[in-house]
Specification:
single chain; 2 domains; 50% helix; five-stranded parallel β-sheet; alpha/beta
Length: 246
């Protein structure tokens, strides 16, 4: 089938990373993200995304601003929560959130990296809930994990989840299908699917992916305008290339 051959030709992780970066460049990136994938893809996402969030000149390639030339651990607007012993403790979460009150010193944004997010203690997760749901406009939370299902469901519901596929095969489109229909349709998930479909069209020039891409773009605009998730889902199902869409 056409979608299987297309997916097998794609480099899914690279395409997803590019989609994530593109979403940030266009101002469509949620402030609270879960990045799930192996350590290699986590490193790739951080290396591509963090410099753009911290750059003082809009993330221009080759920028030599002080933020782009300062190592992250020494950057005043970069905060990393890491495991000490078996867990990231609630006290560490308190300290990180308290440091966000003053706003960024150099950059347009403050970036909080939590890695591995699945090592957050339950107390730390509970404390972070309201902060992930309504962060200050200048704050970006990046929760990185190989085991997203181990996070509290309430944490997952407050974050936009980018689940990076492990391989370039027909599981890619199945995985995206499952994410689209696993819970009530949201504009953010439609945006992610739009970027993915566009990548497939650019890589393959297959007209079916062009139809999917255009439909997703139109559906996103309608969903933003009227919030009718049921109508939006019906429009996508008509063109989506998998029978798993229910």
């Amino acid at each position: 089938m056409w979608w299987t051959s297309i997916a097998m030709k794609s480099s899914s992780q690279a395409a997803q990373v590019e989609a994530l970066v593109e979403a940030q460049q266009q101002g469509r990136l949620a402030q609270s993200l879960i990045i799930s994938g192996d350590a290699e893809v986590q490193d790739e996402v951080l290396s591509r995304l963090v410099p753009r969030l911290l750059c003082e000149n809009g993330g221009q390639p080759g920028c030599t601003c002080r933020s782009c030339t300062t190592a992250w651990p020494q950057h005043p607007d970069y905060i990393e929560l890491v495991r000490e012993g078996h867990a990231i403790r609630v006290g560490d979460a308190h300290e990180a959130v308290d440091s966000l009150v003053a706003g960024p010193l150099w950059s347009p944004s403050k970036v909080v990296v939590i890695r591995p997010a699945d090592s957050l203690s339950r107390e730390a997760e509970s404390y972070l809930l309201k902060h992930l749901e309504e962060p200050p406009a200048y704050v970006h939370y990046l929760l990185l994990t190989e085991f997203p299902d181990s996070l509290l469901a309430t944490i997952r519901s407050r974050c936009h989840h980018w689940r990076f596929a492990k391989g370039g095969n027909d599981d890619d489109v199945v995985d995206l299908t499952q994410r689209l229909w696993s819970e009530p349709l949201t504009a953010e998930r439609v945006v992610q699917a739009t970027y993915w479909a566009r990548r497939q069209y650019v890589r393959t020039a297959h007209p079916a992916w062009l139809t999917v891409w255009e439909t997703l773009e139109s559906t996103y605009r309608q969903l933003e305008a009227n919030g009718n998730a049921e109508l939006a889902a019906a429009q996508i199902r008509r063109v989506w290339p998998m029978t798993q869409a229910r």
